[in-house]
Specification:
By secondary structure, this protein is mostly helical. It has four helices and no strands. The two termini are 36 Å apart. The model has no long low-confidence stretch (mean pLDDT 87).
Length: 132
C-alpha cells in the first residue's frame, strides 16, 4: 500500500476558487480609495523634509517599530504586543511562501509543489504556532 505524502490543500479544495481573484480586485479598489482619502488629508498639512537624517530615521524605525523598544519598557503588555507582532510577521512570510508555491512554482516552472512531506509538516506547525 503506497504511503501518502502530507501536503497542503489549495483553496480548501473548493471548485470555484477563481472567484477569489475578482474579490481581491474589489478589496484592493476599496483599499486604494481609502488610501486616496487619507493622502488628501495628509496633504492639508505643511510640507516637511523627510529625507534628512536618513541614518537616524532608519535606526529609529528598527528600534521603535521592529524591536518594540518603547513598548518593552512595560514588560508584560510589551511582550504580548511583540508576540502578536511576531505572529503576524510569520503568518505574512508563510502566506507569501504559499502564494509563491502555488502561483509561481507550479504555474511558471510547471513543477510539483515543494510544500509536501516533512518540510510541509514543519512549515505548517510553525504557522499554526504563529497563529496561536
Amino acid at each position: 500500500m503506497p504511503q501518502s505524502i502530507p501536503t497542503r490543500e489549495v483553496f480548501w479544495n473548493i471548485p470555484f476558487h477563481a472567484i477569489l481573484y475578482p474579490l481581491l480586485v474589489i478589496t484592493l479598489a476599496i483599499f486604494a480609495y481609502g488610501f486616496y482619502r487619507r493622502v488628501k488629508l495628509w496633504r492639508l498639512g505643511q510640507s516637511e523634509n523627510r529625507l534628512d537624517k536618513i541614518g537616524q530615521r532608519i535606526y529609529d524605525l528598527l528600534k521603535y517599530a521592529l524591536a518594540h523598544y518603547r513598548l518593552l519598557k512595560e514588560p508584560y503588555p510589551g511582550s504580548m504586543h511583540l508576540a502578536i507582532f511576531a505572529g503576524f510577521v510569520l503568518l505574512l512570510i508563510g502566506t507569501t511562501i504559499v502564494s509563491f508555491d502555488y502561483d509561481v512554482w507550479r504555474l511558471i516552472f510547471g513543477q510539483e509543489s515543494f510544500l509536501k512531506g516533512d518540510f510541509y509538516l514543519v512549515f505548517s506547525l510553525i504557522l499554526d504556532i504563529a497563529g496561536v
